[in-house]
Amino acid sequence: MHYRRNYSRGGCYFFTVVTHQRKPVLTDEPTLDALRYAFKWVQQRHPFRIDAIVVLPDHLHCIWTLPETDHDFSTRWRLIKGRVTKHCQISTPIWQKRFWEHTLRDEYDLQTHTDYLYYNPVKHGYVLQPADWPYSSFRRDVARGLYPADWGGNPLLPDDIGHE
Predict the structure, then answer these.
(1) Could you give the dihedral angle defined by the CA atoms of residues 62, 68, 70 and 72, in that order, rounded to the nearest 10 degrees?
(2) Which one-letter DSSP state was computed for residue 100?
(3) Would you tell me how many other CB atoms lie within 10 Å of the CB of residue 81?
(4) Mean pLDDT to the nearest integer, 15-43
(5) In terms of CATH architecture, what is 12-160?
(6) Is 135 a catalytic residue?
(7) Is the CB of residue 101 less than 8 Å from the CB of residue 14?
(8) Domain boundaries, the chain
(9) Which of 2, 55, 118, 124 has the lowest tally of Cβ within 10 angstroms?
(10) Is 121 exposed, middle or buried (0-12, 13-18, 19+ CB in 10 A)?
């Protein structure tokens, strides 16, 4: 089967990018700094909007919107991954070679994928609610009024287990 990416000028995309062999390095401070730098560096040269992002130890999810005249997210990811690798000066690979993308078709698709992205740290057991995860744009979206601060909280807090 031959996979074909969907390149759409001005498109809105959901991405999943995974570390090599799922090594949990992305939330290490030097790697986070390199990732922040790489995103800013690439955005200055190839503009795009980060609508939502969450960084977990071994993968990240984000939603981007590209400029109306541009469809080239692959170059952006190549540059981001390359900058992080160069900045970290690690001899072993940091990234899986590929990434996964999904073109968001409408507002419902965007909301569903944004919810998935923000809930991911809870799903993986890192926190009990999205607001507790520090490597995410969730709190920015709470401040914008897009989510309530307690959205996605785990209904079974440790003190509640077995006390129904």
Answers:
(1) 20
(2) E
(3) 20
(4) 96
(5) 2-Layer Sandwich (3.30)
(6) yes
(7) yes
(8) 12-160
(9) 2
(10) buried
Average confidence (pLDDT) over 26-33: 95
pLDDT on residue 7: 82
Judged by phi (left if over 0) then psi (alpha if -120 to 50, else beta), residue 10 lies in left
Q: Which helix (H) or strand (E) holds 101?
A: strand 100-103
Q: Do residues 152 and 117 lie in contact, with contact meaning Cβ atoms separated by under 8 Å?
A: no
Instruction: Output the six-digit token pair for 75.
Output: 């170059």
Dihedral sign (CA 13, 19, 21, 27)? negative
Burial 124-142 (b: 16+ CB within 10 A, else e): eeebbbbbebebbbbeebb
pLDDT at 6: 81
Nearest-CA neighbor of 158 among 133, 127, 130, 118? 127
For 74-133, the pLDDT digits (tens) are 999 999 999 999 998 777 899 999 999 999 999 999 999 999 999 999 999 999 999 999
Three-class SS of 1-50: CCCCCCCCCCCEEEEEEEEHHHCCCCCCHHHHHHHHHHHHHHHHHCCCEE
Q: Which residue has the tokens 């997210």?
A: 73
Task: Name which of 143, 164, 142, 144 is nearest 155 in CA terms.
Answer: 164
Q: Which of 116, 119, 126, 135 is catalytic?
A: 135
